[in-house]
């Protein structure tokens, strides 16, 4: 194969060649960066959640009637709801929560040992520790195990004392997650310690609370046994169901709740898995958008490669005819045409390094995106080669139909 | 004129003759433009000025009053506690000043036979809200008494509760209490929702119900947005005396002098708090006008912006593609061009004919761009649920699409056309 | 009508210079029929291209129908070409997917005639070549000779001062070639000025004035006795 001749032929068509090179390089850059975004989104989605996400159903609701302003009424209805929901076939357990895992923000407070003086500056992430109020089964209902100490019991329920106005007198028992325990008591066991939220009686396994938070704070959680009753605050129920029952249960939740008392607005009923997907909908949405764009770009590039080869061949018909007349086989001609495309691809891949980095820098000005790596780059190069080769196939095949006789024609 | 018709005739003839070629070209170009248009549709709404008449005169009030003595809390907050907010209302420097918080209530028309209640996003605010935001009244007006059980409702809620009639004077029930409607708003599209641009709510709809803030607090209507506090509280009614930060304040300052005076007013207030030992931080109160406030809250979504960059690149690729296709096309039409030149067409005429062809292609592109763009917009919105119904193709955007289509089509044709019209005549024909 | 004085045309590549025309002198008066002959590579085609304003020249002067061509803009040259010159090519150069009417119409469009005038001219030009009934045909539906006659009609429609023909019968069999030559002779008799490049000595012999181009220079050879068309037949 004569690379010199090829280069010369390409040089003759500077403009078209430059355009195609730019196009290939841009496509390459975009493919690499798109895949980066998609990988990032799926990595976030696949980050282990460490609780029984697959078998949980979430219901969120708000009372619509002023009657719920009465704490006792609120409590009575809530208890009835829990009872009725637990009785549903396929449900293992149900608990109410003041907030749910997989969230942004939420109900947070600072968390420290009770002996820590007021003027000590806490680590930033200890200023906003998610405080969960649920029943005594709050953690096990989510599928989170206790690793040290004990779980909360019915006796730990502080609801009555709280609403009886003895808020300041009680010393509630709480369970915290491992990461939080380690953050507050790095050198000793947290078990039995008194915190500003109560006595730590148990330590639970870490589970995902705030997926977008950095490092250990993702897993921070404090659990207390308390039935918060505030009519204007969204109430959440989580139903732990038997495997395979999620869909079935989702259909029954609304009627069950409304049968207890109809003056409620059911805001959401969905699986925890769904909650997780919705939580990352923007990341995956962006990844999908970029993927769509990427596919379009590859299609356009195929069209271009096709046109380029086609154009080249129509320009070189006679030349190819002469080659045929001089004894080149059809295969030789095919390879000649393909090698032009491959040569272009090689150049584009060199340029592509630049465009990949440039696009990455450009995007990193507005969103968080990881740095491109070499494997991804080679994957994109493969895509470019394959699509280029496919696009060149038809024109290349057509050239083999060029008769050697053409060499003897004058143009 | 006759020449123009001839050129158009020739172009249409050409397009018909090379269907596959033009289909490829038009499709790729239209795709490129469509994707860009869909993105522009979103960006346009995101970056629009919700209240152009006075966006530079309305300010979000941000203050440093967080009562903690340790750490770094000098960054001003847009959420204020009740007594700070009251201090703002007390000033007569601003032309208008309002405070508000978002809530949610369930309500029904008292006269209605049905007992079911409708959820209503609620703005607990002060009377000046309506003048400051230029809220459009259909019937009635604002409440006069900040302690009266009187509300203004939005068009949607009025439709739901009363079928859209003039409901001024009618009563609604919230938590077993009666409220009298004193005003009904026209359909009110405020995008972005500048008075609540924080917490990613800039593209929420305007509220269903507006009520005096004192009444909302007396009735303990919940706080539906960010609230930070240094002490426990159970209900919003308890927040007046406590360090609960949740109220947003906006003021209208028509002159620079007003602005300076008001800034001083805030600063001396913060200074007095500092002197009283409430906090040790530097005084750092800020007034952001509407557009600054929207920028600060990143109302233009980074992700959409990133995608816009990518769509621009894609359009570039499409233009490159169209251009190289056209180059091939003019190359294969060399003979005809040469012939026309020989017969007496000047370069200018050849160029003109090509330009007209590119404009026709551009126009066809524009049509497909708008159609594909609309589909792509729907797709984008389905992937970003919080943006749903913020954007659509309006007239302005369609005109923009047509211009972009024609411009890109022309740009793609430019180089090939120059080449074609300058090609050597004698070598093309025999 | 056509006055070329000491014309030179040089083609340059990176390494070589070729003098396609040098000190080229030719004077054609109105109503003449000139045959240009010469071996291949002698400069015949370059001459025709320069004469037809398709190509520029490097030195000398060229006057076409009283207009000095040197230094004219592309617009002016195009205009001149359109108005004063009719081309007849060896391979007809009809646009295959335009019908006969539209093909002949082409030069008239650039002249800016109105529809009525164009129609009149097209019809009379087609009449002249004897193909008036074929207006709606496509070129491919006609024989080679007919196609060349259409091409001649296209050249005539603008009522040019001079017809330039480049081997007009090169692609035709002898019968058709004869018909085309008859047409050209009769046009000449009706007053058209014609310059025709040919390599066929018989054809050349039948033409009043012969010039031969050798190495880019001209040798006037109007030595042949003019023959009547009857004698050539």
Would you give an account of this structure?
The complex is a heterotrimer of chains A (411), B (430) and C (233). Chain A is an alpha+beta fold and 411 residues long. Chain A folds into two domains: 172 residues, no CATH class; 227 residues, no CATH class. Chain A is built from twelve helices and eleven strands. In chain A, β7 and β8 form a beta hairpin. In chain A, α2 packs across α12 and α3 runs antiparallel to α7. The radius of gyration of chain A is 33 Å and the shape is elongated. The two termini of chain A are 26 Å apart. In chain A, 40% of the residues are buried. With 430 residues, chain B is an alpha+beta fold. Chain B has two domains: 175 residues, no CATH class; 239 residues, no CATH class. Chain B has 13 helices and twelve strands. In chain B, a hairpin with a 2-residue loop joins β6 and β7. In chain B, α2 runs antiparallel to α9, α2 packs across α11 and α11 runs antiparallel to α12. Chain B starts with a helix and ends with a helix. The model of chain B has no long low-confidence stretch (mean pLDDT 91). Chain C has 233 residues and is an alpha/beta fold. Helix content of chain C is 36%, strand content 26%. Chain C is built from eight helices and ten strands. In chain C, the strands form two sheets. In chain C, strands 6-7-8-3-9-10 form a six-stranded mixed beta sheet. Chain C has a four-stranded antiparallel beta sheet with strand order 2-1-4-5, covered by helices on one side. In chain C, α3 runs parallel beside α5 and α5 packs parallel to α6. Chain C is globular and about 50 Å long. The C terminus of chain C is likely disordered. Chains B and C meet through α1, α10 and α11 of B and α2 and α3 of C. Chain A: Belongs to the ABC-4 integral membrane protein family. Chain A: InterPro entries: ABC3_permease_C, Macrolide_Exporter_MacB. Chain A: This is Putative ABC transport system permease protein. Chain A: Keywords: Cell membrane, Membrane, Transmembrane, Transmembrane helix. Chain A: It is found in: Cell membrane.
